[in-house]
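User: I'm designing a mutation panel for Glycosyl transferase family 51 domain-containing protein and want to avoid disrupting the core. Could you give me a predicted structure to guide residue selection? Please restate the sequence first so the numbering is unambiguous.

Assistant: Good idea. Sequence first, for numbering, then the predicted structure tokens:
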Amino acid sequence: MVHWVKAGLISILIALLLLLFAAALLLVGSPTGKDWLIPFRLTRTATLHLKVAPMLAAATSPQGRRLLAGSRWRTRAGTVTLADRDGALVARCAPCEVRIVQLSSEPLRLSAMTLALQRDGNRVSGWVAAANGGAEQRLIFSGALDARALALNWELPRSEIAGVLELLRSAVPEAGRATILGHFSAAGTLSLPSGKWSISPRLEGFEVYGLGTERLRYGAVDFVCRDASGTPQLRHGGDRAPGWLAPDRMGRALPRAVLAAEDGRFYQHPGYDLEELVPLLADAERNGRRGASTLSQQLAKNLYTGADRNGARKLRELLYAVEMERTLGKWRILALYLNTVDWGPGICGAADAARVYFARAPEHLNPVQAAWLGGILRNPQRAYRQEFLTRTPEARRLKWVLAQTPRVSRRHRLGWDAPG
């Protein structure tokens, strides 16, 4: 899960998967050895490690369910009440606070969360539901339990996207003021206690209204640019600001290189790119060096959500990106991105980047220079220190960006002291 956040992935479905993971851990704990064990503190100095598989087998047996029914357990999420219902052990927490550090530093506040688990031999099945106000979403799962692990297949039936975001309102404030249309469904796997997972999502008719991004169609644009010390500085840009350029005034090389490096399907996707996202979510081998965040999502991060590396920020970013696709269109999104993106310490926008790195205007960059600028957007601060100041560009990344850019001549050079 941490890999998903570090890779910059964004998926509206991951929140429910994390809820399933968190809900399961309320019952089964975490591993400490070859068998799946949980620590049970007897005294301040004595701890007993209990085997999870026999405990779950006992708890989900008819006798165990009857014994546990009506008991209440105090947990970090809240008070959990156990019940025996239709052959399943049911754990319910209402209200509930779930701490999911991958989603937000603040706990997710829910009206209720319920986990139902039943077992037939080593086969387990059940569901987990999260509710907030009038919204409830439910995942169903089935799988196998052995001494070391619980391996599950899970499915989220077709649901309204707005319903899921209602659950996350405490972490995603935009969910309370935007009109969100569309449906999604998903399926995947989850293995406990390792936390390994996969997800295959499907989105239909995803649209967002009410976030006010239409204000960016023309006129002034305020954005943050970090100086050499990392201190954020407010800058004023827009169509009449000095150094502000439309994409067609930047020449051909730089816009094409940026798209090749950051978002090769920019003109095909609706603000998010499931073709890039799904392989990363499934832990497939990454193709090339691009992440799953589109230019539209990156622009939303630059102008609205900030750079906190958690799932809530990624969900907020996604909402803004989808609305901007409708209110601004591709050309305006590309112009805003190229004029505001961070290209190094105190270097924001294409005009700054071309001047500082190559002492020329963006339209006069050659294809190799443009490819280097496009390639460093993943980590421009490091590239400034380790490549520009030392005149040692990373050749492998530069070649990769050039390979992604069609009809680019490789006879050009960076023009620095060292060969480009």
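For picking mutation sites, this is relevant: DSSP finds 14 helices and 15 strands in the chain. The two ends are 37 Å apart (CA to CA).
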